[in-house]
Amino acid sequence: MAVPSRVLLGISTVATVVALGSTYVLTSGPAEEPTPRAERNYGDLPPDDFGGPVTLTPSPAPSVSPSASSTRSAKPSDGAEPKKRPTDSGKPNRSGDRPGEQGPREGEPLSSPPAGGAPGSGDTGVPPKKKLRVHRGDLVVRTPGKVVDGLEVHGRINVEAPNVTIRNTRVIVPTGSETAGISNNNDNGTGMLISNVEVLAENAAPGVNGVVGHDFTLQSSEIHHVTDQVHITGSNVTVRDNWFHDNYHFESDPYQGGGASHDDSIQIIGGSNITIAGNRFTGAYNAGVMITQSIRDVDGVTIRDNLLGGGGCTVNIAEKGRGPIDGLAIRDNRFLSDQRIDGCAIIHPSSTKVSHSGNVWDNSGRPVALSRG
Prior knowledge:
Elements: E1 6-10, E2 39-41, E3 52-57, E4 82-83, E5 133-136, E6 139-141, E7 147-149, E8 151-154, E9 157-159, E10 165-173, E11 180-183, E12 192-201, E13 209-213, E14 216-219, E15 222-224, E16 230-232, E17 237-240, E18 243-245, E19 249-250, E20 264-268, E21 271-277, E22 280-281, E23 287-291, E24 298-304, E25 307-308, E26 315-317, E27 326-331, E28 334-335, E29 346-348, E30 354-357, E31 360-361, E32 370-372
Parallel strand pairs: 2-32, 5-8, 6-9, 7-10, 8-10, 9-11, 10-12, 11-13, 12-14, 12-15, 13-16, 14-17, 15-18, 16-20, 17-21, 18-22, 20-23, 21-24, 23-26, 24-27, 25-28, 26-29, 27-30, 28-31, 29-32
Antiparallel strand pairs: 1-3, 4-19
């Protein structure tokens, strides 16, 4: 395979993650063995918090301005306009689920089932016949073992107690609340379970994320029309059987100093014992799964049995100057062919070893090769 001659990439400077007020976790079991297949080499890519390559040259596409960190630090300007992201062909959004149209509706089916059994509207989010009670304003949970069930929250949910369950609930994050819809990003919210939940922003605005935190399980949920769907800040997280789609992307994002948004479906900035399994990813501009070590080392990550798409490279691994990421297993995933860099399904620095097997292109069944940067 021919090796591209040069790479243009955007390097973003990242502020701290303290401002992200929300988090979720997952528990899992790492594994893996097989020998990696032949790798494509995209050159010497410096560690980039939320980045990796932006445009590969030669390329018919115009160059892309450098992406910026997804950490938020400034108020949005009124003039920010989102870049519209394409939805899956043959798999349209539910009517009315895009902010700014008719408001969210409950449980309308897709016109056709998701391909290959990947999660979609029929099996993620709030069950179709579930009746919801409206709660206006933020909801702070401080009771251990509390179950939040059957709400439509026009605000944010902050979990500050152990073993809280949030299920059958829709969270609509108001404009001006540029943090996360659900967060346990503190020392008290361990053991959080999020199940059959939908999270979206009320209106198109930069700075709204879906779930942020650590020590949580996120399952059977739909997160869409936000910047980052999931932000993992620590250990013991399981993300399974969810549908992530339609990230908001701004060419001029006030939270990135006027640079482009750095939207990811999942970003891991620190932690261990993390499993990402059985999810469906579409619509992220930067990466489907972005692994960095922005706040602490990352190790023990398993990515398996997902339908993965989006991004410059769909799975983008960076070390952030902290050394190799240990225990990284990527197996039995199907990859869409929608990367901005053609054929770049998984990219990693040569010092981080990736155990991978059974990863194929969804449209052809051909094996996926690793790319090195």
